[in-house]
Structure formats: C-alpha cells, structure tokens
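Lecture notes, continued. The same structure-token format from the folding unit now serves as the input rather than the output. Read the line below as a description of shape only.
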C-alpha cells in the first residue's frame, strides 16, 4: 500500500517541493545564465554554429598554413558550438519540465491503482476497518453452555462449517481486534468477551488451543493473558495464571516449547503485557537472544530460525521478525543498559534488524522474505509420551515484517547506520503485501494447493494491526 493510498506521508519522507511557476513567471532556473542559454538555444543550433564559424574564419591570422587549416579550425569550432548549444537548451527544457511535473500530475508520486483524491478526502483504510468490524459483529458466536454459561466470541476461523463455538484463540484475537478498532458502538461488549475468556479457562487453570485438548499450553495462556491485561483486567486477578504459566514453561516441563522461537516469542510478548515485573521475563529474553544464528549469506549477521537450539533450521525472516518485535518490547519494559545479558539482547536485536534490511531480492512486495510459513510444534503427550500432540501454526510473514520494521528500535538503527532508504523500501513492500491480502478487511489463508480458503481470526488481527501501526507512523498533522 503506497503512502498516497493512506492519504498521508511520513514526516521524514515527503518534503514539499517547489511550487509550479505561474504563467507569467520565469521557471525556477530563471538566472541570467539560464536565460542566455535559452536565448542561445532559441537561435537554433545550426545558426549558432554558423555564426561561430564565420567569426573565427574572419579573425584567424593568414599565417596559418593555408585556407584549408582556417576552414578546418572554424568548422570544428562551429560544430562544437552547435552541439553545446543543443545540449544546453535540452538540459534547460528538461529541468523546467521536471520542476513543473508535480503540478501537472499530482497522482504520479507512487499511488498504485488508485485515483487521485482531494486533499481532505478519507483514504481507504477507514472503510477497511469499518468493514472488518461489521463482519466480526455479524459473525460473533453466542452459545449457552450448560457448564460454562453464556459464551460470546469467535471460533478459530470465520465461517467454519462445524458448530461455531467460541475458542480461546479466536476470542483472544477478536478481543485484540476490537481494542484496536476502538469498539465504535455497543453491538459488542468488551466485558462479554473478557468474561468468555475466563469461562473458557481449563479446570486446572490456563488455556489451550482447540487441537491441544485439556492441557494448558504456555503460548495460548500467554496470548489470552495479554488480551485480558490489555482489556483492563487487574494484575491481581491475573497473578495466579501468570505464575502457573511461568512455572510450567521450563526446559524440564516443556522442552519443545522452550526450543521453539514461535512459542518463546509468544510467551514473552504476552507476559510483558500481563506481568511486566515477572522474574521469568529476563530469562526468556536471554534464551531468545542466545538462540540467534549467523547467516554467511548476509554478511554473517545474526538472525533466527524456527528453533532456539540445534538444529536451528534455516534463517527465517518470519522468526527473525518475531524475535525483533519481542526483544524490542522487552527492551522498553526491562531496559537494555547496565547488564551484560541485556547488552547481548540489544546486539542480537540490532543484528536481526540489519538482517531484515539486507534482503537481496526484489521487488520487495513479492520477494521470498515475505512468503507465508507453516510449522508444527510437536510435544509428547503427558498421558502417553509415546505419542505427540501436534500444533499446526501458520504465519502471516508480511505482517510480522511490518511490525518488526516499525518498532522504535528499527527506525533508530536504520537512521544511525545510514540505511533509512533500505528500511523505507522494505517497509513499503511489506505493507503492500499485507494490503493485497485482504478483502473488505478480512484476510484469507489458502490451504495448500487447494482452492479452499479459510479466514483465521489471527490473520485478520495481524493484518489490521500492521496496517494500523503503519497508518499511525505515517500520520502527519496538517499534511
């Protein structure tokens, strides 16, 4: 999505150009030398060259070796003058045309597939937000459960064929969306969504995804806790669940989760919202930073694969972006100064940003760095360790790159390293890819090579969140 589609430009990228000259004014390059060059070009290249030829032929001394030499010198000089006059006049015309171009076509500054709008006309983003809100309101599921009471929320995906019971994952992402959109009317109640998430808590505490059964998992628990904290649930009410989540997320009890970049970053982000003073946060940050790997294909910059322990897997833009977002949030909550471990985390985060900016492929709205991913998190079942619980995780890569590049630390680093142009090009490409994936504010995930498409709640949340963050960054008062 271009800056023009949003109707605003970033503070540092759109500087007002010179106003077009009025019909009775000189062009911007109206100095005396420029007027002379224009006058000289107006005589005609041939006329200027012939005048020089005649002048030189008349003043060259007869002592030169015959008339042939005088003709040769005069002719070459005249020809050179003709060429110089033609080039100077062409340059002046080109400069004048370039100065007037913005006034002639204001929509040429990068808008893609959109008509020029009046300066005070709203962009398409408000319509997208309104459409998304209407769709979620229309498809909210309200179920009276005999054991849990009334549940108000969403399943994992919109439009599921099976009975649409609210799930912790779908409802948590729906709550995040509503908070992003500001709950513009009373058709949905934040309180109902919060109550539903508490009612969906497992009997022994915590939350799990629909495919994970009755055992709480830290990544889902942290997701729900983050949404509840953002909606205003008190720290006292969250405390027991925070402790249960943190105490169960150890290498001894959940080795697969602690070695997964996706799981660790999800838990870290959720607990930073729900329990910013938790003692587990520095440990998770350290584990995440220590899991970075060097990439010889990109100047040995550190990045992340899908695992934090060997085998790490291939360097992954998706997991690198997730790590950058989590480490940037941790830096703001925990700080990055005065501690060797915090310094290592900052160095790893900054290398991850540089790695994202070093993508060698183009164009950056369709490059391989933006490809969506699918991974599995496999855990031994506690009731039968010979079998594994498999959590299928799909990733909207472009939205993560937008969020990573819009972290405060990313822009600061790009400016300090002289990489602001690279940062801007890659951000614009990622935003364009996010924008292209939505229809009326809802994002679709195609299943494999089939024609079947789903509308997962997490994907719509990530798409809307990325576009909202980009619009906030680009907003220019009075622009």
């Amino acid at each position: 999505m271009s800056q023009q589609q949003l109707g605003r430009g970033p503070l540092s990228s759109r500087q007002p150009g010179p106003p077009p000259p009025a019909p009775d004014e000189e062009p911007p390059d109206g100095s005396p030398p420029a007027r002379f060059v224009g006058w000289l070009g107006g005589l005609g290249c041939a006329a200027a060259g012939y005048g020089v030829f005649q002048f030189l032929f008349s003043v060259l001394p007869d002592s030169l070796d015959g008339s042939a030499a005088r003709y040769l010198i005069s002719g070459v000089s005249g020809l050179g003058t003709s060429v110089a006059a033609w080039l100077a006049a062409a340059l002046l015309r080109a400069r004048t045309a370039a100065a007037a171009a913005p006034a002639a076509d204001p929509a040429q500054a990068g808008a893609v597939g959109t008509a020029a709008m009046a300066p005070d006309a709203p962009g398409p983003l408000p319509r997208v937000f309104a459409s998304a809100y209407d769709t979620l309101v229309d498809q909210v599921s309200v179920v009276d459960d005999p054991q849990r009471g009334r549940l108000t929320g969403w399943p994992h995906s919109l439009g599921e064929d099976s009975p649409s019971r609210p799930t912790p994952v779908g409802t948590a992402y729906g709550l995040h969306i509503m908070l992003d959109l500001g709950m513009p009317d009373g058709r949905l109640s934040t309180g109902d969504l919060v109550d539903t998430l508490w009612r969906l808590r497992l009997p022994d505490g915590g939350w799990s995804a629909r495919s994970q059964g009755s055992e709480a998992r830290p990544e889902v628990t942290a997701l729900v806790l983050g949404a509840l904290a953002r909606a205003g649930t008190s720290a006292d009410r969250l405390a027991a669940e925070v402790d249960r989540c943190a105490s169960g997320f150890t290498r001894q009890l959940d080795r697969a989760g602690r070695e997964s970049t996706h799981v660790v970053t999800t838990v870290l982000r959720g607990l930073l919202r729900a329990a910013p003073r938790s003692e587990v946060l520095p440990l998770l940050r350290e584990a995440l930073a220590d899991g970075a790997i060097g990439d010889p294909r990109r100047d040995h910059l550190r990045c992340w694969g899908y695992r934090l322990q060997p085998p790490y897997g291939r360097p992954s833009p998706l997991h690198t972006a997730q790590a950058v977002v989590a480490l940037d949030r941790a830096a703001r909550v925990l700080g990055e100064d005065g501690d060797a471990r915090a310094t290592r985390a900052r160095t790893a985060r900054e290398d991850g940003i540089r790695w994202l900016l070093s993508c060698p492929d183009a164009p950056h709205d369709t490059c391989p760095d933006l490809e969506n991913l699918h991974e599995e998190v496999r855990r031994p079942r506690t009731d039968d360790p010979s079998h594994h619980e498999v959590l299928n995780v799909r990733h909207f890569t472009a939205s993560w790159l937008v969020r990573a590049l819009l972290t405060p630390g990313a822009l600061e680093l790009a400016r300090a390293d002289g990489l602001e142009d690279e940062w801007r090009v890659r951000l614009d490409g990622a935003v364009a890819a996010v924008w292209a994936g939505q229809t009326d504010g809802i994002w679709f995930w195609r299943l494999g090579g089939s024609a079947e498409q789903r509308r997962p709640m997490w994907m719509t949340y990530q798409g809307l969140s990325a576009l909202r963050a980009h619009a906030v960054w680009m907003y220019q008062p009075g622009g």
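Point for the exam: Residues 66-104 form the longest helix (39 residues).
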